[in-house]
């Protein structure tokens, strides 16, 4: 293998979409085409045979993730046209050995996937001894969401074996040069290509990046920076999808339409008609924070108005969410400051000083703790618990990316129901 191989993982559930995307990837320079595990589960061996029939000159990989009955699964994939069959490296040695025997019989190769292997360096060498042809240093999609670094595993195994090693797991134009520099002979890319609105362009850019290897220097941003960057890109709707519809506050509206805010919560518990704690919170919040106020659902007396808003802007605070009311709306709208409220009311209360800053509160049906992440836009406000903030944010980016491709297919003339194949996936 002289030139490193670019393998595109077709992790889709509809075969016609997979075939179209494969064609665009081939036009962009994809070398190998993988029938991804979701595609195989959804379409069966037809996924493999159709890819082979459509792209006969390309190496076809069947990502079976075999964990048992190695011989049967390898035989099925081989007879359907696969050139390489992926089995789980964590399977018992007997499964690997049977897979290798079947592969030799049917003239295909075995790639062992190191996903979730406990001791990858040792297992890599064992798998080589067992006769597998390729190893795949693979960080799964769910693992990527929790922040597992994809190239870490590659670095652990690359010097333990002599067979070619593939790198897989969230590889992009940015990280592919690092994979090659670390010694990967095959780069497997799924999401960065198949979710792109320009599959050919993304494939070409990754191909070009692979041809200019650069030493990998590890993740460049800290987690909070990454969370903020992603939340600035995605919408509250994307986050809600990522959270399986949990986290959305109810009963709020955006005072300044067209504004968006992202930040960590500074929580305030106060009582209807008492604006002391909300205003004191401005001095305790830092730039980029969001003040989230439980005002006892008071909708007739506002704990927030124009002067508090000016004070917030001076402090660089990102936004305010009030389970209650605000006033001075005309002035606040001129400032285009992101505020979400339950109601509008001209009455202010008194600065009595009841309540608390920095305690767990309930706001519009959601529990909010200090430091939880908040995203608000015209669709509403969603709270992301800080304990899962990184994971949820990464998943929201996946939702965002998936929609890029869906949008592109709608622009090409398909209906949403067709793209999603709704009738097929109705619950039986
Ligand atoms: O094997 C994969 C995954 O387990 C789903 O089947 C992916 O093909 C692999 O992770 C590459 O996809 P990305 O991580 O989206 O690049």
Automatic annotation (TrEMBL):
GO terms for molecular function: 3-dehydro-L-gulonate-6-phosphate decarboxylase activity; hexulose-6-phosphate synthase activity; orotidine-5'-phosphate decarboxylase activity. It is an enzyme of class 4 (lyase). The keyword Lyase applies. Keywords: Carbohydrate metabolism, Lyase. It comes from Methanospirillum stamsii. It catalyses: D-ribulose 5-phosphate + formaldehyde = D-arabino-hex-3-ulose 6-phosphate. Belongs to the HPS/KGPDC family. HPS subfamily. GO terms for biological process: 'de novo' pyrimidine nucleobase biosynthetic process; L-ascorbic acid catabolic process. It comes from the Archaea. The keyword Lyase applies. Residues 5-206 form the Orotidine 5'-phosphate decarboxylase domain. CDD domains: KGPDC_HPS, RraA_family. Its EC number is 4.1.2.43. This is 3-hexulose-6-phosphate synthase.
């Amino acid at each position: 293998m002289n030139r490193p191989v670019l393998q595109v993982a077709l992790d889709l559930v509809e075969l016609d979409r997979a075939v179209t995307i494969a064609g665009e990837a081939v036009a962009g320079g994809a070398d190998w085409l993988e029938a991804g595990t979701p595609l195989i589960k959804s379409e069966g061996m037809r996924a493999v045979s159709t890819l082979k029939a459509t792209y006969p000159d390309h190496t076809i990989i069947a990502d079976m993730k075999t964990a048992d009955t190695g011989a049967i699964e390898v035989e099925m994939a081989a007879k359907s046209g696969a050139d390489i069959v992926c089995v789980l490296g964590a399977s018992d040695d007997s499964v690997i050995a049977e897979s290798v025997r079947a592969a030799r019989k049917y003239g295909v190769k075995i790639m062992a996937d190191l996903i979730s292997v406990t001791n990858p360096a040792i297992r890599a060498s064992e798998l080589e001894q067992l006769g597998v042809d390729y190893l795949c240093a693979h960080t799964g999609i769910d693992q990527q969401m929790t922040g597992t670094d994809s190239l870490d595993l590659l670095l652990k195994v690359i010097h333990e074996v002599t067979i070619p090693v593939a790198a897989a797991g969230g590889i992009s134009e940015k990280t592919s040069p690092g994979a090659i520099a670390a010694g990967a002979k095959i780069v497997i890319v799924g999401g960065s290509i198949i979710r792109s609105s320009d599959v050919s362009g993304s494939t070409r850019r990754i191909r070009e990046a692979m041809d200019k290897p650069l030493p990998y220097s590890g993740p460049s941003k800290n987690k909070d920076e990454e969370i903020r960057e992603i939340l600035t890109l995605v919408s509250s709707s994307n986050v809600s999808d990522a959270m399986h519809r949990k986290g959305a506050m109810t009963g709020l509206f955006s005072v300044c339409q067209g504004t968006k805010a992202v930040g960590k919560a500074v929580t305030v518990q106060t009582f209807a008609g008492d604006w002391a704690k909300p205003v004191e919170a401005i001095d305790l919040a830092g730039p980029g924070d969001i003040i989230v106020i439980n005002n006892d659902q008071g909708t007739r007396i506002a704990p927030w108005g124009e002067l508090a808003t000016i004070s917030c802007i001076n402090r660089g605070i990102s936004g305010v969410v009030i389970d209650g009311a605000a006033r001075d709306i005309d002035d606040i709208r001129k400032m285009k400051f992101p505020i979400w409220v339950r109601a509008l009311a001209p009455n202010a209360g008194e600065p009595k000083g009841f309540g608390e800053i920095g305690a767990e509160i309930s706001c519009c049906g959601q529990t909010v703790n200090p430091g939880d992440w908040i995203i608000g836009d015209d669709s509403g406000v969603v709270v992301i618990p800080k304990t899962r903030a990184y994971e949820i944010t990464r998943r929201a980016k996946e939702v965002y990316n998936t929609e890029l491709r869906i949008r592109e297919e709608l622009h090409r003339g398909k209906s949403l129901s067709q793209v999603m194949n709704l009738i097929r996936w109705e619950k039986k």
